[in-house]
Amino acid sequence: HVHQIVEAAGRWYVVAWCEKVQEFRRFRAERILEARVLEQDFRPQVLFKPLKQPSELLAAEETVQAQEAFSKKIARWLKERYPGGREQADGRYVVTFKVADPAWFVREVLQYGAEAEVLGPEGLREAVKRMV
């Protein structure tokens, strides 16, 4: 059940009640592969709290601090993308992320192949290893 549509940074998101998990979820509109009209009338969920600002799309109640080190080879470009990181003596560039969705973080790491390494926490290191 769609409750809200929000645009942020040129992307559209659908905030909807997910029947499968019985919770609200936020979906990128262009990633929705299938939708159907339900027979019952739409009734907003009483628990629904509309997003007031697009920045709330990526907010989460619980996050984990994760550190990712980028190799010297790509550090220059990652400094531009993530300016809040820190340079190591060996030339690597380390960025701390607030991770609400481990699956997102695994994809973040894997896109850089061998040029990125998860420094911690151990649970996220293991999640990346399982995907490799």
Strand order in the largest sheet: 5-6-4-7
The share of residues in helices is: 10-25%
Percent of sequence in beta strands: 25-35%
Using the alpha-carbon principal axes, give the shape.
elongated
Unreliable stretches covering 5 or more consecutive residues? none
Which H/E pattern describes the elements? EEEEHEEHEH
Helices and strands: which structural class?
A: alpha+beta
Largest sheet: 4 strands, antiparallel
- DSSP, total strands: 7
Detail the topology: elements first, then pairings.
Elements: E1 2-8, E2 11-18, E3 23-28, E4 64-70, H1 72-81, E5 86-87, E6 93-99, H2 102-110, E7 116-120, H3 122-131
Antiparallel strand pairs: 1-2, 2-3, 4-6, 4-7, 5-6
Helix pairs in contact: 2-3
Notes on the structure:
- This protein has 132 residues and is α+β, with helices and mostly antiparallel strands.
- Helix content is 22%, strand content 32%.
- It is built from 3 helices and 7 strands, in the order ββββαββαβα.
- The chain has helices at residues 72-81, 102-110, 122-131; strands at 2-8, 11-18, 23-28, 64-70, 86-87, 93-99, 116-120.
- It has a 4-stranded antiparallel sheet. The chain has a 3-stranded antiparallel sheet with strand order 1-2-3, with no helix packed on it.
- Strand 2 (11-18) and strand 3 (23-28) form a beta hairpin.
- Helix 2 packs across helix 3.
- The longest helix is centred in the middle third of the chain and has 10 residues, at 72-81.
- The chain is elongated and about 60 Å long.
